[in-house]
Amino acid sequence: MAWQAGNWRITRQFWVVAHRWAGLTLALFLAVAGFTGIFLAWIDELEVAAAPQLQLAPPPHAGARPLSTLALREQVLARYPLARIDYLPLHIEEGRSLRLYLTWPAGIQAPDWDDLFLDPYTGKELGRRQWGNIGQGLKNLMPFVYRLHYSLALGPYGTLAFGLAALVWVVDCFVGFYLTLPAGPLRWATWRKAWTLRPRKSGQKLWSYKLNFDLHRAGGLWVWPLLLVFALSSLSFNLPQVYAPILQALGGRDHRALYEGATLPSPRNLPKLAFEPALKRGKWLAEAETAKAGLAMADWGESYLWYIPTTGTYLYGFTSSADISKHGEGSFVAFDSDTGRLRAVQFPTGQTGANTFTTWIEAIHTAHVGGMLWRMGTSLLGAIVTMLCITGVVIWMKKRSARLSRLTKG
């Protein structure tokens, strides 16, 4: 089977080699992403298990109500006047602490922590950590696992490398699928062999190269649609430089460009709208824009207020009837931090098909839909991705050994 255009003729063997080298290039990235993904589907529970002293804050008595997160933020800033808190969650789950992320201005000796955990009923500090620093012990286990998952814990360069790996993965999904097809005419009687494990012969070892090959081919086929979804969503998360233009070409809008595109000459660190009036403005705009879109506000999800000094923009995130999950970047309005003028509004579904598609693949990737059953499915898929990487490397090693043996004999 070959593909030909003009004078170029690409044979099946070309795609075999391309798949082999793409797989070897991706093996480390996908093995790490797959293995860590097994646990990240349960990140909330594992955060509590690893650091209950930080994560839990039971109410002092039945019916107790937490303080407003706005008031708690002001308490912390009064305690640490040099710090900034630009992201404020507005919703606290019962029995959980409030986590605030602090940043410190350049030129001062910053402390060895940036995550602060508070008892939302009293404002008492429960503990601190530097997010992702595994050297601080178990309290940073899950943040470190998360850093491994998207960047190998190597910072921006690791994130970029994972993005490039995601791009290769998207292409290789189609190449791998093509290679499962029979070399001759496509008939189900022939192709169905690729979907199954060949029976083990009497006396054959429990683990053999044949079983390894079948696991790699059949395992990839059975979960192929999900592999493509995870590859595309990884591209969206890690390489927006590529994903955003594709999204826009399909009629969608990159939500990051809505609030990151107009960078100011210098950060607006002291906006005219402080957090409290900005919160009121955000709520008013959210209600107005939701009504204009024919949607309804919802109170079952998360909400937040986020200030971005580099663009002088506030984001008020909320949940609407267009959201498919209570987590993540759902509905939001973006407005100017001096004038309160609306800059952008985003609903995760319903505005464009491309944005709705992106919302769904990202929610599937992060296990924010489907409840407990899909979280279990996400963990299983992480294990399958890890298995595909291992079996792929074994296939390469076996074929490389055979080629070297032939060269030696020749």
TrEMBL record:
The organism of origin for this protein: Novosphingobium umbonatum
PANTHER family, A to Z: BLR4505 PROTEIN, IRON-REGULATED INNER MEMBRANE PROTEIN-RELATED
Keyword Methyltransferase on entry: no
Alphabetized UniProt keyword annotations: Membrane, Transmembrane, Transmembrane helix
Pfam families in UniProt: PepSY_TM
Domain of life according to the entry: Bacteria
The name this protein goes by in its record: PepSY domain-containing protein
InterPro entries: PepSY-ass_TM
Transmembrane portions of the chain: 21-43, 160-181, 218-237, 379-397
